[in-house]
Design goal:
- The protein is an alpha/beta fold and 241 residues long.
- Helix 3 packs across helix 4 (70-78).
- It is globular.
- The protein has a single domain, classed as Vaccinia Virus protein VP39 (Rossmann fold, 3-Layer(aba) Sandwich).
- It has helices at 10-15, 28-33, 37-52, 70-78, 91-99, 136-146, 163-170, 183-192, 214-219; strands at residues 60-64, 83-88, 105-108, 119-125, 147-158, 195-203, 228-235.
- The chain has a 7-stranded mixed beta sheet with strand order 3-2-1-4-5-7-6, with helices on both faces.
- The chain has 9 helices and 7 strands; from the N terminus they run H-H-H-E-H-E-H-E-E-H-E-H-H-E-H-E.
- The N and C termini lie far apart (35 Å).
């Protein structure tokens, strides 16, 4: 996919989808693969478990680009002692989260710096492909500065090398301006932002509704052809405010 020729106001773009946001489930291929957005989120939650289970009870997590808060809510439900927050550029998405009954601390991101060294873990789930490529390193560096020393950043993204994923993205309205990034590109972004990649896991080789194939999906994690990938990076450089 070609990069957009001019900068797009992503907050305003997503405001237009807020009141009927369904995480792309209007695409028939995606509905065939899973019955609901939660079907696609649960495998991600399972991948996160190894990280979150080892955090102290007082740990804090930010879901960067949280949208209507569905992923953050699932995290809070599974780990109720964890301090979970979410932020997003789109005020409309945050308003929709409130309308749907969220009780989480979700706040509007102004597109600049994040709170300094506040979080043990930051997640960004299918967010970076909506960011202008020229801003990828800048945003990753802001996230690094928001992490406590030794904190972790989890990036979950669509895999452009998977033909089904590429087709679905190309035929989903909310992804009209998306620019997919490969796991190798994400590693480079991390490195330039001062983050050290410590884990790469490919997943969604099979439709998430086929839960019985989840162990096989896990076993294929080293094959770079899954529908999505899960990258974990560590804050390797102490930032400055």
């Amino acid at each position: 996919m070609e990069a957009p020729k001019q900068k797009i106001d992503r907050g305003a773009e997503f405001d237009g989808y807020a009141d009927h946001y369904g995480a792309g489930m209007e695409n028939p291929a995606k509905r065939l693969a899973g019955a609901s957005p939660e079907d696609f989120l649960k495998p991600k939650i399972d991948l996160l478990a190894g990280l979150i289970d080892n955090l102290p009870e007082s740990a804090s997590l930010l879901d960067f680009g949280c949208g209507t808060g569905g992923f953050a809510a699932l995290i809070q439900s599974r780990w109720p002692s964890l301090g979970v927050e979410g932020c997003d550029l789109s005020e409309g998405m945050l308003d929709e989260a409130v309308r749907r009954g969220t009780t989480l601390n979700l706040w509007k991101y102004d597109g600049r710096d994040l709170p300094f060294e506040r979080y043990d873990l930051v997640t960004a789930v299918c967010v970076f492909h909506h960011i202008c490529p020229s801003e990828w390193v800048v945003v990753a560096n802001r996230i690094r500065k928001a992490l406590k020393p030794g904190g972790r950043f989890v990036l979950i993204e669509h895999n452009p090398w998977n033909p089904v994923t590429s087709w679905v993205v190309a035929h989903t309205a909310i992804d009209a301006n998306a620019v997919l990034l490969s796991a190798n590109t994400a590693r480079r972004i991390f490195r330039e932002a001062g983050l050290r990649t410590i884990q790469v896991q490919n997943f969604l080789f099979f439709p998430p509704r086929l839960v019985w194939l989840r162990p096989v999906d896990r076993a294929l994690g080293g094959v770079p052809l899954g529908g999505q990938y899960f990258l974990v990076a560590e804050n390797a450089v102490r930032g400055t405010p």
